[in-house]
Amino acid sequence: MATLSAKIFKHHKKTDGTYNVKIVLYHKKQVYIDTPHYVVDHQLTKSLRLKDQFIVSQIEALLSTYRKAISDLGSKIESFSAESLKEHLIAKGIKVDFLKFADDYIKALRSKEETEKTGANFNTVRNHLIDFNHYKDQLPIEFISVEFINRFEKFLRNERIMLRKDQFGREYKKKGKPLPDSSIHIYLRDFQALFSAAIKKYNRPSLELIPIKFNPFEEYAIVAVPQPKERKLDVNQLSIIRDAEVTKGGREELAQKLGLLSFYLCGMNAVDFFKKNYIIKNGRIEYCRSKTAARRKDKAFISIKIPEEAQQLIEFAEAAAKRYVSIGGLNKALSKGMEALSKTTKIDHLEFYKFRHAFGDLAGNACRKPTKEVALALNHIEQGFKTTNMYIPKDWGIVDEVQEGVLKLLRPKNCGQTRYECSSTTKFLLSYIQPISLV
């Protein structure tokens, strides 16, 4: 049988002269539960018993709540240890503050490289919730209902005032533009993921601990993601980007060269240029793709041949990455650079990720490479053959063939494998259009 009592410990006296009132729980062994109540000497007898009647009434009410919770367990209490029973009693009184939970959860995500971007995305949702909550930093999770989500979506679809902080931590207000369906879908999807994470943390059905009794997203229809715009870049557009004259040292040059380098290296992601966790040996670049490394047993490892077009661009990428303290900073610079490159080349809506899509599109459609080979070159995992792939070592020669087929599309016709095998006339033309001339 579990027993409960209140106790003050003399050796727990703090430097400010206060004692925390503890609840002593005995069930198979003794454990202690902190309370929110603190007392000083004049509220205690000489034997350290409570004599302040207000505190006594508060502690008695808490003990009564705990005793009822124990009584409700009935015979199930025998399956509890002292520690699990303590957890059960504490959780009975939990009131979940969604914003506090979100802060702690996001902080944990952003402390790890592999989840930093997810944390940043969740932080965007948190910021919008604070705007919607009129800048209050508390949001009881029971307030989040289907109707709440509906009002939050309407809030995002209209102009709104947003409270943000600058690089020095100073708060300022800015006007937010109405968000389209694509952004609404992402924000509500991330909101739903945060809510599910809270349920996973606080709800323990096996212990009958269910402080979050309802998931409103189970009844809320999140707007469907719109059909994405075509991300394809054709050979002519890639040639225009390659040959474009851009201002040296700026974000436009960064976008041009890193975009081309991504294309030459089978769609390598910007985050992998930034982290520089790759090894270059024997004319190849080898690394584990950051986006999927944590989800794959092979750590998403890939080995790619470094073509002549990419050699000097790798040096550029290594130098450029040092200018940014986070992948977020690099991504923002690339975004601005792509906007400038779009104006220069007259190619609308350039994005860094389009270069990866272009490689996959040209490999599959222009070069007629099998989907399995394209997937290998793009470092995708084949969902239907996970077990089989464990027994078949990867053949990087296949990746080389896919890469060579795609890059040939951008090389002058009637040339050999390198520019040194071309005719004198073609050499002159090649020196004008090769991407190395951009460095």
What does this structure look like?
With 439 residues, the protein is mainly α. Helix content is 47%, strand content 11%. The protein has 16 helices and eight strands. Strands 1-2-3 form a three-stranded antiparallel beta sheet, covered by helices on one side. A three-stranded antiparallel beta sheet has the order 6-7-8. α8 packs across α10 (308-321) and α8 packs across α11.
Mean pLDDT: 87
Report the biggest beta sheet as strand number plus sense, adding barrel if it closes. Answer: 3 strands, antiparallel
Sheet-strand content, in percent, reads 5-15%
Number of domains: 3
Order of strands in the sheet with most strands: 1-2-3
Quick rundown:
The protein has 439 residues and is mainly alpha-helical.
Q: Topology, please?
A:
Elements: E1 3-7, E2 19-27, E3 29-39, H1 53-73, H2 82-92, H3 98-110, H4 116-132, H5 146-156, E4 160-165, E5 171-176, H6 181-202, H7 235-243, H8 251-264, H9 270-275, E6 279-281, E7 284-288, E8 301-305, H10 308-321, H11 327-345, H12 353-366, H13 371-377, H14 386-389, H15 396-408, H16 424-433
Protein traits:
439 residues; mainly alpha; three-stranded antiparallel β-sheet; 16 helices; disordered C terminus
